[in-house]
Design goal:
The complex is a heterodimer of chains A (297) and B (292).
Chain A lengths: L1 H10 L1 H43 L3 H4 L14 H9 L2 H32 L5 H11 L8 H10 L6 H5 L6 H12 L3 H9 L4 H12 L1 H17 L2 H6 L8 H4 L3 H5 L3 H21 L1 H11 L5
Helix pairs in contact in A: 1-2, 2-16, 4-16, 5-9, 5-12, 12-16, 12-17
Chain B lengths: L1 H36 L16 H8 L1 H33 L3 H12 L6 H11 L8 H8 L9 H29 L3 H9 L4 H29 L3 H7 L10 H11 L3 H28 L4
Helix pairs in contact in B: 1-12, 3-7, 3-9, 3-11, 5-10, 7-9, 7-10, 9-12, 11-12
Classes of the chains: A mainly alpha (297), B mainly alpha (292).
């Protein structure tokens, strides 16, 4: 900035005064823009705030005709009710187990495959790589009917395994891992080879630890994705006690008619874990989203 | 040396085996089965007769199928361009801020994106609730009376699209932000030196330089929204699903409600082909950017 400033000054002192006046106007314009940004952000986040605050009101206040941005009486009755009278604890466990399984299996198999594709020579390597690249564009949503038939044949409907298996196809994880493994300097591998380390050891001791950041980022978004998945868990499970929390909360209204504070309390609980995960790992989530969109973050 | 080579091959095959198994059983096989099933009259579970292209002939004459295609296209039109433009505008607004202010504002825009769709549904069902929803204040002001948005046919798709933009825009904002950051500040400084107006700067510098990201976001959105099911299914609950039926929903209803496995598979193949055609388009766009 300073070089630009001085260059401007040396060119023409009149221009500098004109510029500084423009700068002042610029600041006021900037201030207004910032203000608009803040108002817009508040409006954008408002529905989440409004849902949250509704859950902390007694039902009569939640449906009161006047708009109250804070509860007159604070209460956790709605949460208490959902915790006691629905299977939300059970749904949470289902979501945790299936989402963790999806994350661990996807990352494990993808990292191993990416390592082989990146560092090892074997027949079918090129074919496999092109298959993975091609499957990037295939809509898994179109496979729901046949996934259901397949899971029914394996008798896996209404089981954790049945929820997990069709969610394991994430070619993008392999693509991201391969890009990172490709950029690890070859000297590390050669040095390890000299010490007669096996491939699995090289993978586990060098390539994985060097890319922990990527692994964390991919793990968090894979987990959030599995936690939030709706269509497949909704199809694969019909028994309430096997539902994931995202699916389960839609059945909450059937349990006690229309009680808005309670409905929303179920929703807030369902989102709580992923919201907290995001707030803690904000930068990792951002990085992973950039990576999977093909943009180096 | 030869032994080493053989050993490397065995290790490599062991490494890729778990993935190849998953990929084969849960991806290649169901894809193959889908195509096969679409040529039969099988129910969802159980065997069927080979009937050739009859399902496809039926599909081309099926008014409800074409309604679902039209609704899907309508939803794509309602979401893709607004979602991209709003994402760009918000990203430009956020990119002006610095440090913790930027993180905070960005988080406020991004938070909806990490919510499960059922939570988004609950929140907006409450916001738009015809008796108690806070959105009824502006709606009453506009329409003169309380409006059941998700029970009014012409409003349904735009309302679901609106909620979808709110829900998914965070993703676009992130991509645009990284694009904006990669534009060199020198160019802006030079423009400021020329006393260029905000609009000129946007039109002459930001827009052309951000265009590759815009193209990427447009195609990602396009492919994503073609697969719409969740929001439409959830918001139509308790109402009549037929007028707003989208393609995946039609697959769902044929397979899981009408028990028409073969016919549902034929519609799946149609969706499959449509998405792949658009994906190839996306691939071209990405390749144009010089990336894999």
């Amino acid at each position: 900035m300073s070089t630009v400033e001085s260059r401007a000054a040396s060119l023409d002192s009149g221009a500098t005064t004109r510029r500084s006046r423009a700068n002042k106007a610029f600041d006021i314009g900037g201030l207004i823009l910032t203000l608009i940004t803040v108002i817009f952000a508040v409006l954008w986040a408002f529905p989440i705030y409004w849902a949250l605050i509704t859950t902390l009101k007694p039902e009569q206040q939640a449906i009161a005709k006047t708009v109250e941005f804070l509860p007159r009486t604070w209460t956790v009755e709605a949460y208490w009710h959902v915790l006691v009278n629905t299977m939300i604890g059970r749904w949470y466990i289902n979501s945790l187990v299936t989402s963790l399984a999806v994350t661990v299996i996807t990352l494990g198999t993808s990292a191993l495959t990416a390592y082989a594709l990146s560092q090892l020579r074997f027949p079918g390597r090129t074919v496999l790589w092109y298959l993975i690249l091609a499957s990037f564009m295939v809509p898994l949503t179109a496979l729901i009917v046949n996934h259901f038939i397949l899971m029914a044949q394996f008798s896996l409907i209404n089981t954790w395994m049945g929820v997990v298996l069709p969610q394991l196809i994430h070619p993008v994880v392999i693509i991201v891992y391969k890009n990172f493994f490709d950029s690890v300097p070859k000297e590390y591998r050669e040095a390890a080879k000299m010490d007669s380390a096996g491939e699995f050891q090289i993978f586990r001791r060098i390539y994985l630890p060097m890319n922990w950041g990527v692994t964390t980022a991919l793990a968090i978004v894979t987990f959030i994705g599995a936690w939030n998945a709706f269509l497949w868990p909704f199809l694969a499970v019909s028994r309430p006690e096997m539902m994931n929390v995202a699916v389960g909360i839609t059945s909450v209204n059937d349990a006690f008619g229309v009680q808005y504070a309670r409905e929303l309390a179920g929703a807030i609980l369902a989102a709580l874990l992923v919201a907290v995960l995001y707030l803690i790992f904000q930068r990792r989530v951002t990085q992973a989203i950039m990576l999977s969109a093909g943009v180096k973050g | 040396m030869l032994r080493n080579h053989r050993q490397e091959m065995v290790v490599a095959l062991l490494f890729v085996l778990p993935f190849v198994l998953i990929y084969g059983v849960l991806f290649l096989w169901p894809t193959f089965q889908m195509v096969y099933l679409s040529f039969t009259d099988a129910p969802l579970i159980g065997p069927g007769e080979w009937i050739g292209i009859e399902n496809y002939v039926e599909m081309f004459d099926d008014r409800r199928f074409w309604t679902s295609v039209r609704n899907t296209a309508y939803f794509v039109v309602l979401t893709v361009i607004p979602n991209t433009l709003i994402g760009l505008v918000i990203a430009m607004m956020v990119s002006r801020l610095k440090g913790w202010q930027q993180s905070l504002i960005l988080a406020m825009f991004f938070l909806p994106y990490i919510l499960p769709v059922t939570v988004v549904y609950r929140i907006w069902n409450w916001m738009f609730n015809v008796q108690f929803g806070i959105m009824q204040y502006p709606l009453t002001w506009i329409f003169g009376k309380a409006t059941p948005v998700f029970r009014t046919q012409w409003m349904f798709m735009p309302a679901v699209a609106f909620v979808t933009v709110w829900w998914t825009c965070g993703f676009n904002i992130l991509l645009f932000l990284s694009g904006l950051r990669s534009i060199s500040t020198d160019i802006y400084e030079a423009a400021a030196l020329d006393n260029a107006s905000r609009w000129t700067i946007f039109r002459r510098i930001t827009w052309p330089l951000i265009w590759p990201v815009t193209a990427l976001v447009l195609t990602i959105q396009l492919i994503l929204q073609l697969k719409i099911f969740d929001q439409v299914y959830l918001f139509v609950q308790g109402g009549r699903p037929d007028p707003s039926m989208v393609m995946v929903q039609y697959i769902y209803s044929q397979a899981f409600q009408k028990n028409e496995g073969g016919y549902a598979a034929a519609i799946s193949v149609a969706l499959f082909v449509i998405v792949i055609v658009f994906s190839i388009l996306q691939f071209q766009v990405l390749r144009g950017r010089g990336q894999k």
